[in-house]
Amino acid sequence: MPTNDPIKIGPLKREELNEADRIVRLAFGTALRMPNPLDFMGDRSLVVPRWGMPNVKMIAARDGGRLIGSNVVTRWGSFGFFGPLTVLPEYWGRGVAQRLLGATMAVFDRWDLRHTGLFTFAESAKHVGLYQKFGYWPGYLTALVKYTPEPALPRDGRSADAPMRLSSFSRSRREAAIEACANLTGKIEKGLDLGDEIRASLKPDRGETLLIYTRAVLDGFAVCLTGPGSEGGKNTCYVKFGAARGGPGGGARFDRLLDACETFARSRAVDLETGVNMARVDAYRRVRSHGYRPTMQGVAMQRPHAAGFNRPGVYVIDDWR
Ligand SMILES: CC(C)(COP(=O)(O)OP(=O)(O)OC[C@H]1O[C@@H](n2cnc3c(N)ncnc32)[C@H](O)[C@@H]1OP(=O)(O)O)[C@@H](O)C(=O)NCCC(=O)NCCS
Prior knowledge:
Blueprint: E1 7-11, H1 17-31, E2 56-63, E3 66-76, E4 79-82, E5 86-87, H2 96-111, E6 115-120, H3 125-132, E7 137-147, E8 164-165, H4 171-188, H5 195-201, E9 207-214, E10 217-227, E11 233-244, H6 250-268, E12 271-277, H7 281-289, E13 293-303, E14 315-318
Parallel strand pairs: 4-6, 11-12
Antiparallel strand pairs: 1-2, 2-3, 3-4, 3-5, 6-13, 7-12, 7-13, 8-9, 9-10, 10-11, 11-14
Helix pairs in contact: 6-7
The structure holds coenzyme A (COA).
């Protein structure tokens, strides 16, 4: 790039956070042809609550000092993903996203990850082509799914192996539980670790992490984001990531995890939203049979072109947004 290029890329500053959030709404709202683009995602934000997380970097594009786009880069142990990536509509088609992606790839290289991914509009030649330039390849569809819990069912009563809320644990027990979560995900994909997301979910008004056990052995966990100012907002419990231990009985454990999410959402009187990649065939079917309906679907693209944890027998819910 010529040195007199007025567009510069660098870390997002704290004071630019709200403008970055506004650009995210404007860009997606414009692309989706919403009558009022700034209404995109209502009170939810996929940017503001992620500020300051140790596993997140935010990259900014500026034109002569004015913020014109950003990208959020996230690390889950050995796996990384990015998004939302957005550019002010008046700058579209001028290479700004590619500049942001160049800086994103440099972050991934520094993090020394096994693989990285993203979620994008499957039908958009522009989006798929843009990411292919950076070595990403489309795999299976990921469905965003939503469910409104029914009024309480009798099975909501406490049983010996009732789901636990991590926030109810003492500090030391919390860390041991977070380590057990990393052991569980590490068996799904080497090095996959949600520790930072789990810790962040315990901040005030961010949500909760649910854990299910059989006789003190961790069977699964779900990072549930809900509350004003969180990624779920005040009306939604957004399950950012959930996983059940695979192998024999994995499907039944996953069902219990979905039940735990449902009970939690009901206790907060909110809807549930999550994502599930269709390569996780049984997980997808079970999510559907629990009553979740797809609201939108996109495609998971990965670099290198490999299945990662999007494969049959994996009981994970997430969408990489
Ligand atoms: C998607 C978005 C970030 C792209 O930003 P941008 O600055 O316009 O993108 P760039 O100009 O850097 O790159 C566009 C690239 O798309 C690719 N592209 C565009 N049309 C294409 C087509 N029909 N087929 C294949 N590739 C295509 C090209 O590689 C093109 O770059 P090139 O012309 O230099 O080769 C921006 O449009 C945006 O904010 N959209 C709304 C939010 C959004 O969709 N975010 C991404 C969600 S995953």
